[in-house]
Amino acid sequence: MKILVCISSVPDTTSKINFTDENRKFDSNGIQFIINPNDEYGLTKAIILKEKFGASVTLINVGTAETEPTLRKAFALGADDIIRVNAVASDGFFVASQIAKIAKEGNYDLIITGKESIDYNGGMVGGMVAALLDYPFINKCINLEVDGNSVSAEREIDGGKEKISTQLPIVIAGQKGLVQDKDLRIPNMRNLMAARTKQIRILESENSDNKTETVSFEKLPAKQPVKMISPDNLDELINLLHNEAKVL
């Protein structure tokens, strides 16, 4: 079994976010980047399948050289190879086009993305990859079992869960629940040392149109200071909720 795992390099959730160029570009100065958490669940599932079936696990990222430290961290968790498409990940369709081309040429059986990245929250790449390849797609996947070419999976839906059966090859978009938190891996020293010198296969991007364009970014408004109201002063509480917060 050949597994292709898509890895996004995203800002740590504790990072302070700023924008430049009149709020048209993300300011990466001083930002610590990490493996996208949804991708990490998918990567861990791929490694478990590798250990169970002897599968090969290849990482893929569409990005510039700045993403390589994150890719090496992901490799140290137990992957076999790394591919980086040397391009700015400008929009979802562009990224999906690059991934789909490599997935088709490499004849991968299972392509795993995260349901979304935690920076842009677009949630579109997995579905687009599946459409471009004409593969079945399981979104918000929280369980996956493989038996030969047969696949049984489970995904979250509004108000419940849905069980699915299909055949390889497929594309899934994983999230929390695809593996248990206790199964997430911590790289050992040997893998960390190997990751430092691992050769990354760098490919130039294929021509592909962008379907979207970022016009500008806008920060959320600053939180207002908290007003403390005496529990005995219900009239003032109602007044503030009605006239200031406007929730009544």
TrEMBL record:
PROSITE patterns: ETF_BETA
Signal peptide: none
Keywords carried by this UniProt record: Electron transport, Transport
One Pfam family here: ETF
UniProt-recorded name of the protein: Electron transfer flavoprotein subunit beta
A GO molecular-function descriptor: electron transfer activity
Transport recorded as keyword: yes
Transcription in keyword set: no
Annotated ranges, domain Electron transfer flavoprotein alpha/beta-subunit N-terminal: 23-212
Family membership: Belongs to the ETF beta-subunit/FixA family.
Source organism (scientific name): Capnocytophaga cynodegmi
